[in-house]
Structures
1.
Amino acid sequence: MLSRRLFLAGSAMSAFGALPPDDLHAEAVLTEDGLYKQSWFLESFLELADDLSAASEKSKRFATMWELRGCPYCKETHLVNFAKPEIEGFVKEKFDILQLNVVGSRPVIDFDGERLSEKRMAEKYGVRFTPTFQFFPETATGLAQKKPRDREVARAQGYLEPKHFLAMFRFVAERAYEKGTLRDFLKANG
């Protein structure tokens, strides 16, 4: 879909003799609840174990993205990070992302079967900053018996600049968390 912003950018480039980009990508849409959303984000019944299983069946990893209406860093994540074709392409190919609202009221069924609102889920997992990405293991086996924070294989809190943002997703996709920290991964992969 060619947006007005992309059209204008393409028109400006054409005026200066440059061609518009070949790698047009989906843009974030501002939804009625005030959150930006990527068209490729997971549509879900908000049952986390089912979402994780479905992601695994597609050879993808499952992650949640916690946001808040008016959060400038959430907006930046959508309009800067996900606007980069190399980031969007990698994340879209390797991950199913479930968008959750840190103060939301939609009912979510956690890995342990507990049904609670998004807001209560955020409290249960100690999500206090937006955006926060939670990354989960490849299967839900044994997750119900673990404490909420112990269910995650990695977490990213707050805004990450594009280079580090992509590195975080690579860190999880490559299962580098099994060998060390994100900091170790960044040092090794410069």
2.
Amino acid sequence: MKIWPSAEQTTARAIALRAMAWLIGGLLATGIALAAEPAADTKAADAIHITADRLISDSNARTAEFIGNVRAVQDQTIITADRLKLTYREGGGGPEGVGTNSLDTIEASGRVRITFDNRVAVSEKAVYTTDDKKLVLTGPESRITSGKDVITGTQITFHRETGRVEIVGDDQNQVKATIHSEESGLN
């Protein structure tokens, strides 16, 4: 006997898939921010393949959460984490379901690794807030690697609209940067 998903389960899946498309598009734009240029709006995303041990949707809390061995892939962008939680605004979306305008926050936690372009971001937690278009990576030794260049800190913040990047350390972990210059550098 087949058991078909309920309307709520179908809506939760649509929310999760659209949110992942938006997250990955945002991360691609964040890659532009790493190059210190303002991010351009991203076009509609191609197919996204998501795997996880389970998906829990809570309509009352307005959340959809992928849990366990989360892996999201779109083209050359790969996001892995222990958990990926999507929170959407009350009353968001219309008859077609929840769109990108209804997302409030996207949070990845536990061994977060984001690979895009030639960059890799690693942290314990990554939170993207849609209102201010800001991605914050937190955790000891959070780092961004681009080729041979590496920047580490306790908190790394990308301001998507302005292209501004801020890296903060703490008493145990100062900000560290290794930058390989093609020019003579400080000499």
